[in-house]
Amino acid sequence: MVTKQNKKDNLSYTKTAYIYLIPAFTLLAIFVLYPIINTIITSFKLDYKFLTGAFTEFNIRYYHEMLKDPVFRRACVNTSFIAFVCVPASMISALVVALALNSIKRFKQLLITLYYLPQVTNVIAAGFVFLLIFNKNFGLLNTVLGWFGIEPVAWISGSGIAGSAELYNQSYRRCLFVLFVYSMWQGLSLKVILFLAGLQNINPQYYQVAQLDGTSKLNVFRKITWPLLSPTTIYIYVTSSITAFKAYSMVVAMFSEKFGPPGDNSKMMITMVGYILEQLGDYLKPGAVSRASVAAVVLMLIVMILTALQLGITKRGVHYK
Amino acid sequence: MQVRLENMTKKFEGKAGTVVAVDHLNVTIESGKLIGFLGPSGCGKTTSLYMIAGIHSLTNGHIYFDDVDVTGLAPEKRGVGMVFQNYALYPHLSVGDNIAFPLVNSKAIRQRFMKELDELNQSALKKTTYQQYVDMQVKEAATLVEITEYLDRKPSELSGGQQQRVAIARALVKKPDILLLDEPLSNLDARLRLQTRDEIKRIQQRTGITTVFVTHDQEESLTICDEIVLMKNGALQQYGPPQSVFDYPENQFVAGFLGSPPINLIDGEIRDGQLFLDGKRWRKIPGNLENQKVKAGIRAENIRIAADQEEEGFPATAIAISKLGGMTTVTAQLANGSKIKLYQDLSSPIMVDEEIRLKVTKDATMLFEGSGGKILQW
User: Looking at the domain assignment, is residue A84 inside a domain?
Assistant: First the structure.
């Protein structure tokens, strides 16, 4: 029962708690909350001058313009490709690798270390290595394909795409493939480690019980491993897709700051973050900061909505201890 | 179902060399009995259980269920139900789903129950679906262990004792021929342990299933088991009904392991057919035994204090008296410092430092030779 005295105690207790929270709140307000709000406001200011703060009017025109911008659409498609194709694909392969690693005894530690190596490798350096792998004339991939009698493929090339839609699309598909392989490789290591940790958290006696019953391997995975691993899976999915929406450096590593293969000037491989930076370009030009803000606000909204959806949908199906 | 262990041996290869966990164990468990595998930590009792279950393979020997050699058989083909020490209930499934798990997810068990259901449906007017049949089986198992009201809860919402029952229900629902329990009471508090102990006995008697029960607690095994298998360092020490193992232990280890307080062991010597304790002649012993050093073992409940000055007895001094509920335990000291525990007769109370004389009841003195074997009991 809540008595008056209790209520009073609770209140003073709450007050004390707030005082303790003030420093953290202050920092959050200055470095997170204020920039977000300011970005939102800035996104509506037309011809905004960054240095003087002057602007002509409050309008949603930049939003209109951005939604009609083909480069923005391209950025949306590419980013979605990373978030909804590359991330699930690399999660599935990470789970398979983790399950395999978890079931072996010999060389386990060595293999785990090997799988973790990409995580400590520089993105730009690794991107350069991938460029060499996919090189048309002396790349590893074409050499291997050559053993099977396949003609060298120009994986990263925009030659001749200016006049031909067919060539353009072919070049785009190849670039997406390169991006897919690279992001799989790059994202695998951390996911494998996280899945392994999740798997090792499952009490081995659950498997012994299932074994005594003669439960098939598939049922053991479906009914025991998968549900008990679900908190790890959701954690990996949410964090990886947020990271995917912020993808930038890996595209630059392989397709340079022009966001495309040599010969392309349509920025075919641009991402959302890449688009924001593009808009910022010459930030002294009136309106440039506002346009970048528009893109930033849209990206933030997309990430927020998707994260909320993911957590909301999966809340029922996930078993937390 | 009868379970016969023949020279059952398990060796583990470790960094420190080979460890013999179970050493040529020969035991025949009669059908429908509740058997306790008993021994101190590391004696091989759980390893034995895991071998019967098929989780561990045998290094040597054979296991027979009735006359079928199951040594090489996969666990799921043996028809055993097992309850693990920490129950291993699936935390994401409700109690009902936990119990139904083997019926739904195991192909072999599913087929067996499908067949049963088909026979049932042939003579029935109203056909039962498999799902309904599973529900019936779950209900039945839950009723047996008295957890029907918790079927919709998650295991984490149950107490330890209730979780224990769910685990037993899950092991029994598939109608196994043998039930294996690995230290089923060790995670429960003292009161619940007593209650669950009787519960297990009741369930075992109701189902009549051959049950093997692993425990390190001698009291548990003495109270509920039909027979006990006492082990040490992987080797069988004694096998038989608890009371007879208790009354007639074959060696010093068995005598010392069973009973609380532990049996009194006093250094003694046989000289010319007489037993000397503490350098003093005590009793004449039957038979012809060589002169040797021995240990005399006498349980506290078999010692009484001589009633009056006329009666003969072995002299000692009472050095401590402790009361525990209705029992009063006296610690007495012999002249050489050996301590003996006995229960005090309430009709003739004694005091600390009192000189007393001790008498032993018939058939209660055991003599153990240096290697631990029993050489005489009279």
Answer: yes
Choices 2.40.50.140, 1.10.40.60, 3.40.630.30, 3.30.1330.60: CATH for B255-377: 2.40.50.140
Task: Identify from B49, B77, B98, B101 which residue to disrupt to test chain A contact, counting A C-beta atoms within 10 A and taking the largest count.
Answer: B101
For testing the chain B interface, which of A105, A208, A212, A226 should be mutated: the one with the most B CBs within 10 Å?
A212
Task: Match 């032993």 to its residue by tokens.
Answer: B360
Residue pair B242/B34 in contact (Cβ under 8 Å)? The answer is no
> Are the CB atoms for B145 and B161 separated by under 8 Å?
no
pLDDT at A43: 92
Q: What is the pLDDT of residue A77?
A: 93
Buried b (16+ CB within 10 A) or exposed e, B96-135: bbbbbbbbbbbebbbeebeeebeeeeeeeeeeeeeeebbb
User: Cβ of B262 under 8 Å from any chain A Cβ?
Assistant: no
Minimal Cβ distance to B107: which of A214, A227, A319: A214
Give all strands (DSSP E) within B285-350, no chain letters.
292-298, 303-305, 314-324, 327-333, 339-343
Provide, as residue numbers in chain A, all residues whose Cβ is less than 8 Å from the Cβ of B82: 209, 212
Q: Which residue of A has its CA nearest to B175?
A: A213
Specify the amino acid at residue A137.
N
Domain that holds residue A171: 69-314
Q: Where are the domains of chain B?
A: 3-251, 255-377
In DSSP terms, B275 is beta-bridged to: B270, B283
pLDDT less than 70: residues of chain B: 308-312, 346-348
Total count of domains within chain A? 1
CA distance B113 to chain A (A): 13
DSSP A6-64: HHHHHHHHHHHHHHHHHHHHHHHIIIIIHHHHHHHHHTTBTT--TTT---S-B-SHHHH
Residues in A touching B92 (Cβ below 8 Å): 227-228, 319
Which pLDDT value is given to residue B347?
Answer: 66
Output the pTM of the full model.
0.78
The answer to whether position A7 is within a domain reads no
Binary contact (B102, A215; C-beta < 8 A): yes
* A201 in contact with B, Cβ within 8 Å: no
Find the CATH number of the domain harbouring A142: 1.10.3720.10
Residue A208 domain flag: yes
Per-residue pLDDT of chain A (321 residues; tens, 9 = 90+): 555 666 666 767 788 888 999 999 999 999 999 999 999 999 999 988 888 888 888 889 999 999 999 999 999 999 999 999 999 999 999 999 999 998 888 888 888 888 888 888 887 888 888 888 888 888 888 888 889 888 888 888 877 777 788 888 888 998 999 999 988 888 888 999 999 999 998 988 899 888 888 888 899 999 999 999 988 998 898 889 888 998 888 888 888 888 888 888 888 899 999 999 988 888 888 888 999 999 999 999 988 998 888 878 777 667 665
Is A30 part of any domain? no
Question: How far apart are alpha carbons A197 and A178 in whole angstroms?
Answer: 30
How far is A228 from chain B, CA to nearest CA, in Å?
7
The confidence score (pLDDT) of residue B219 equals 86
Give the CATH fold of the B3-251 domain: Rossmann fold (3.40.50)
Do the chains contact at A213 and B109, CB–CB below 8 Å?
yes
Q: Which residues pair with A215 in a beta bridge?
A: B106
